[in-house]
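Design a sequence for this backbone.
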């Protein structure tokens, strides 16, 4: 009965192949990244669905203006962190689970990028890195802000890359212009003078509006009012390592208000009187100065002068509620009245840093060593070989800025009594 058994074998082989095909089809969906399931309306929001329902895709066709809903599925205001342990080290369960949507709660948080339409391809690269290394598994929203309306290309490209919902906001003119108390002629002469002295961005009006906006207004835009935490992302940054946990949860669960990856000294020419204004504020508002603050990070003589150390604000994960607090807003308004955003060229980095350094207890500022990061010309590459291997980093250790002379990160460790990461002595100096 050779013919009969041959047919029998063929049936078995056929059934096996069929089962195998069905298995691969049902198990091969590329989780975390979905193709757009709709067209792009003229509206200001694009969106994606997601497996955990952390973002809802059912508002995509609504016309602008749009805003994120206060209630978002997956976002929990109160939960017991112990019920949802995060893998913080390679020994923790789940460290290697980097496929699929991450389980557990989501924080009331969003990415935020200020950008021009012409920044589209540079912000696209940044988004791609953030998604690949983190957000494809978490699907957090992304808010884009611009002093002009975003064009269709910008919205299409960014919405296609972000795994969460996207929102596009236009900044009101009052937040991107000269306040009435600024003497235009005086401001113009300063720009002329800085142009001659070749101070970086010294002759730019728009850069000053940008710095003032990032210092005092981004966190109060309507699109950001529905969130508690933000992660700022600029065009042309890179992320070098996988993120094995949710940094928003690290912020929330440890009561952190501000965080950084790179710190350095500010250009002297851009902030000649910033510290004078700060001292005036401290005198007028002693109630806003936190006991146990980070003055030692900012000053080497007990507050008499500023050592120009600041956290580099092109990367920030922080608390919007803190920036919206009376303390922070009083500080910004006091600086704004003094006019240094226009009579000098105060950057938002020293402004945020001084605020965090003086108005937060030092424990509320966090250093994210695990987040390998580049923004020209500086690199933060996590310290130590094993750490980089565990995190699957692709940065060159020789590029790490952390322990070089021009970095302020050593001071941060010293003032907080923190032990420097293993291997820091062998890193570039
Ligand atoms: N909408 C808008 N965004 C701007 C403007 N100037 C700068 N930005 C954004 O502000 C941030 C800082 O600007 P950038 O050119 O990266 O300055 P740098 O990092 O200090 O060299 C980036 O997110 C830019 O996209 C502007 O005139 N309009
Ligand atoms: C998120 O935070 C904002 C601002 O604090 C709040 O108004 C909103 O209700 C919160 N949403 C959720 C889902 O917790
Ligand atoms: Mg930049």
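Sequence:
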């Amino acid at each position: 009965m050779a013919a009969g058994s041959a047919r029998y074998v063929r049936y078995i082989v056929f059934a096996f192949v069929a089962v195998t095909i069905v298995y691969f089809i049902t198990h091969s969906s590329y989780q975390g990244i979905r193709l757009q399931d709709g067209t792009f309306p003229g509206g200001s929001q694009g969106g994606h669905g997601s497996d955990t329902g952390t973002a809802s895709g059912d508002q995509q066709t609504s016309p602008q203006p749009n805003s994120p809903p206060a209630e978002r599925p997956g976002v929990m205001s109160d939960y017991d962190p112990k019920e949802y342990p995060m893998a913080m080290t390679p020994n923790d369960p789940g460290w290697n689970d980097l496929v699929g949507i991450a389980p557990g709660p989501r924080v009331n948080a969003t990415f935020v990028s200020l950008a021009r339409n012409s920044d589209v391809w540079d912000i696209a690269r940044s988004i791609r890195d953030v998604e690949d290394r983190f957000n494809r598994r978490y699907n957090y929203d992304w808010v884009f802000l611009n002093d002009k309306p975003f064009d269709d290309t910008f919205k299409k490209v960014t919405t296609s890359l972000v795994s969460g919902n996207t929102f596009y906001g236009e900044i009101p003119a009052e937040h991107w212009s000269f306040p009435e108390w600024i003497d235009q002629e005086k401001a113009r002469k300063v720009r002329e003078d800085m142009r001659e002295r070749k101070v970086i961005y010294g002759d730019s009006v728009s850069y000053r509006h940008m710095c003032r906006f990032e210092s005092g207004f981004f966190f109060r835009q309507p699109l950001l009012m529905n969130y508690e935490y933000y992660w700022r992302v600029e065009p042309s940054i890179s992320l070098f390592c996988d993120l094995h946990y949710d940094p928003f949860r690290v912020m929330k669960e440890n009561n952190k208000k501000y965080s950084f990856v790179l710190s350095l000294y500010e250009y002297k020419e851009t902030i000649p009187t910033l510290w004078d204004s700060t001292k005036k504020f401290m005198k007028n508002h002693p109630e806003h100065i936190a006991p146990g603050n980070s003055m030692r990070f900012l000053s080497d003589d007990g507050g008499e002068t500023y050592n120009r150390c600041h956290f580099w604000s092109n990367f920030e994960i922080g608390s919007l509620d803190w920036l919206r607090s009376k303390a922070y807003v009083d500080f910004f308004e006091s600086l704004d009245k003094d006019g240094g955003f226009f009579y000098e060229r105060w950057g938002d980095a020293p402004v945020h840093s001084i605020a965090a350094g003086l108005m937060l207890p030092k424990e509320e500022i966090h250093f994210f060593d695990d987040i390998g990061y580049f923004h020209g010309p500086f690199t933060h590459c996590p310290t130590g070989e094993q750490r980089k291997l565990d995190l699957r980093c692709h940065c060159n250790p020789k590029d790490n800025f952390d322990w070089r002379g021009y970095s302020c990160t050593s001071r941060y460790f010293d003032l907080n009594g923190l032990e420097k990461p293993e291997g820091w002595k062998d890193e570039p100096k």
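Residues 24-44, 48-65 have pLDDT under 50 and may be disordered.
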